[in-house]
Specification:
It is a single chain. This protein is α+β, with helices and mostly antiparallel strands. The protein has three domains: 34 residues; 68 residues; 83 residues, no CATH class. The chain is built from four helices and five strands. It has a five-stranded antiparallel sheet, with helices on one face. A hairpin with a 4-residue loop joins strand 4 and strand 5. Helix 2 packs antiparallel against helix 3. 9% of the residues are buried. Keywords: Signal.
Length: 254
């Protein structure tokens, strides 16, 4: 071969080798690019996964909170249901009592009228201790029974209270000032009662004394021997003297 041909062959060979290096370098670059894209996509996916995990954890915590609250509400609702049931039983009981009030009143009101009548008769037959006060109490009871503003329970309470006051007269020793009608003459006296055992009267000048005769329903004048014991009895009732034994005109029980 000539020298020119050798040079041409060498140039062609060099070009061929250069073309081969270029061709083999292009796929490597493409691989690097694809690998970079894959890493970027993987990082992006991992970021999404991390976000989704955080969201799932938040949702799980929220779910547990809802479950706990639901359980608490169920327990509370069961408790409230028990209270409601108990209140309903109380309402039913009250309603039953209310329904029976009219029947009770129909029985109690006539009873109270009979009690007041009996009390009035008893006072008329009893020894006249605080007579005016006791008769006024009976009249107040009758006024109360005619007053629509006073409840049945209050009416009954006052009737019972009147009976309790009457009962107390039998166990008290008392002295008080009042008027005595003796044979048509009204005299201011000091009354003394030993329960219902004896009722005595002493004139304010302490010169006369009387005893109530419940059988005769009249006052009987006492002799001079009883005046001093009656004076002492009045003083003892007024807490001016200590209690002591006295000789008083008391009718023996039959």
């Amino acid at each position: 071969m000539s020298q020119r041909n050798l040079i041409a062959s060498a140039v062609v060979g060099a070009i061929a080798l250069g073309s081969s290096a270029v061709v083999s370098a292009d796929p490597l670059n493409e691989l690097h690019k694809e690998e970079a894209k894959i890493h970027a996509a993987a990082a992006k996916s991992q970021k999404k996964i991390n976000n989704l995990y955080e969201q799932s954890q938040e949702l799980f915590i929220e779910y547990r909170g809802v479950v706990d609250e639901t359980e608490n509400l169920k327990v509370y609702n069961d408790y409230v249901s028990t209270l409601v049931a108990d209140q309903q039983r109380s309402i039913d009981s009250l309603q039953t009592q209310i329904d029976g009030i009219d029947g009770v009143k129909r029985g109690v009101v006539p009873l109270m009228f009979r009690m007041i009548d009996s009390l009035e008769k008893f006072i008329d037959l009893d020894i006249p201790i605080n007579l005016n006060e006791r008769k006024e109490r009976v009249e107040r009871l009758r006024d109360i029974m005619a007053n629509s503003n006073v409840t049945t329970s209050e009416q009954f309470r006052q009737v019972i209270e009147a009976y309790q006051i009457e009962n107390a007269y039998g166990g008290t020793i008392d002295a008080y000032q009042g008027k005595l009608d003796y044979q048509g003459t009204v005299i201011t006296v000091e009354f003394f009662n030993l329960g219902r055992t004896a009722l005595l009267a002493l004139s304010l000048d302490q010169k006369s004394a009387w005893v109530w005769d419940n059988d005769a329903r009249a006052w009987e004048e006492l002799g001079a021997e009883f005046i001093n014991p009656v004076v002492i009895a009045v003083r003892m009732a007024n807490k001016l003297l200590p209690a002591d034994l006295l000789k008083l005109p008391i009718k023996a029980a039959e």
